[in-house]
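Hey, I'm writing a tutorial for new members on how sequence and structure tokens pair up, and I'd like a real worked example in the thread rather than a made-up one. If someone can provide the structure for the chain below, I'll link this post from the tutorial.
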Amino acid sequence: MVRYAEVLLSLAEAMVQKGGYVYSDVTALVNEVRQRADVNMPTVEEVEGTVLSKDELLGVIKHERRVELAFEGLRLFDLYRWKELDKAVANIENERTTYSLAYEARKFNGERDYVWPLRLPNWILTRNWFSTTCGSNVGCGFSSQVTRIVTKEYELDKF
């Protein structure tokens, strides 16, 4: 299930990231989330002003996502998408050391932590792709091509 507020904020973010957006269209999307009957928050223009740069507008959208979608399990994915996970981990580590909190230290490795593991599809795992003998259902020479592709970051769409 996807909340309508998430759809609106994702659309606003995509419009700003793409560029060439109409400012009033983006703020209208955020305002639609802010001005639901049960919330009735002030508009973006009332709080932030009427002329925001691209970065300022993205900041408003990021803040709105953080507040609106709190406790829904989406924050981590936002941090990954915005490449801000390193800052969040640094903040957690700073608070851990400042307040002597008793939980495991976090270390951030950008080359590793911004990459998600990909599981190989079953059709790759169940066949003998790496056979060196001819006469298999794959054929001669194909296994070396697949080996080269699989070992290069699972770029399976190249064959």
